[in-house]
Amino acid sequence: MDDLERELGLPQDLEHDDDSSDDNSTVEKKKSKLPLSNRMTEETPRETGFHQTTRICLEHIREALLHHKWQEAAEYMACYPQMLEDSTNGTAQQYKELIWRISTEILHHHPNSKIDDYNNVYERMKHTGVRHYLMICLEHSFHLLLNGHMEDAKRQLSVAESWRHGKESAAQHQWTKLIQAYRSLLDYIIWCDKKFTHCNSDDPDSGDSKDMHNYFRQASVNLKEILKNPGVWDPFILSYVEMLEFYEGHEEALKVLNDYAYDNTFPPNPNAHVYLYQYLKRHDPSERKLMKVLKSLHALVPSHELMLEYSSLLLHSVKNTDIQKALGVVLEMLDFACWRSNLDVWKRLKAIIQKLQLHREDWKDIVSRKMAERKVWWPALHFTSFHASKDSESNPELMEVKASLTEILCPDLMLNYAAEQVTSAART
């Protein structure tokens, strides 16, 4: 809609007078962002009848869209694409993406839209110029895929993959890589279908196995190239790893996941460490390796749900220093309100402190150092009378665990949470 509102002001560009180059024209141009209602009724001195008609048509389309009158918008939109025939000052190019976006928006909401309508719009817009060709092909394939037309979607991507126009620009190269990746993702989806058929077949030597391998090879060609382009490629990486895992290519799968998680040219991505952890847990459940991955994940997302597993590994480690690390991990989880009422986290905290009490004479100092900066705001987050009342009603076991930790975590403070527990116990 922002594009539509911006385009409604385009006729003002037709007013540009080469003889008027003083500061007043600059000021007037800056102040031209008037309320839309005023600008819509404005006529410009050099506006032709054609421009006036198309401008009014666009205004009607906007009003129909705002009021969700999809049939009315479609009727006006059938006339508006004539704007593409306008060669005045080269403005036709500015309207191509606008027509594409509005047309697909109307079709998405129109109750009687059909797949052929989408195909007609996409094919027409592809051939109005080369600037948006690859983007339109990619969006077209998405729509076909969502409507179950798998082969048609793959055909669209294959055509776009081989499309070239002039000297390849950096932007065109990026779009081509993206299209190659999605085309390979479709190969993976077809591979999954064939895998399901193969696994449920009574004949293990059937042709499905060969077809599966062909689709695996086709998909892997581009999927394994993704790591050469820094970015967030979660579904592509997972697809490639699943296929490698099926064919027992464990070394290659582990290399892909390690590169995805630890390559510094890629943006920080917690999911990359989660995928690596899950793979290691399936194939190489070495506690040392698992803790290394979770340590990296902890640095990115200290509130992640896997931190409960990380604290468990640290708690059962033979190193005494790991108990202190486990204490820090769980306290950092409880710094976030999403874990405030989680019984498992509070139980883990209690277990860690109990182990500290058994193995460290200076356990009070260790807890005190960890809680030093938290004493100011933790009571308000966890230990108010409101929390006590809520916990006593919804989860008495949680209240019991928390109350047993109040004097250990905040020994110098008088907490309403503990007082509320005493009151509740007395009433009982």
How would you describe the overall organization of this protein?
Helix 15 (287-300) crosses helix 16 (307-315). The protein starts with a helix and ends with a helix. It is mainly alpha-helical. Helix content is 68%, strand content 0%.
Describe the structure concisely for a colleague:
This protein has 428 residues and is mainly alpha-helical.
Tell me the structural class: mainly alpha
Q: Average the pLDDT over all residues and give the rounded result.
A: 82
- Radius of gyration based on Cα positions: 31 Å
Largest sheet: none
Q: Alpha-carbon distance between the termini?
A: 61 Å
Number of helices: 23
Percent of sequence in beta strands? under 5%
Q: Work out the helicity level.
A: 55-70%
| Apparent shape | extended
Low-confidence stretches: 7-42, 422-428
- N-to-C SSE series? HHHHHHHHHHHHHHHHHHHHHHH
Overall strand count: 0
Tag the structure with descriptive keywords.
extended, 428 residues, mainly alpha
SSE diagram, text form:
Blueprint: H1 2-7, H2 23-30, H3 36-40, H4 49-66, H5 70-77, H6 92-109, H7 115-126, H8 133-146, H9 150-161, H10 170-199, H11 207-223, H12 234-246, H13 250-262, H14 270-283, H15 287-300, H16 307-315, H17 321-334, H18 343-359, H19 363-371, H20 378-382, H21 385-394, H22 396-409, H23 416-427
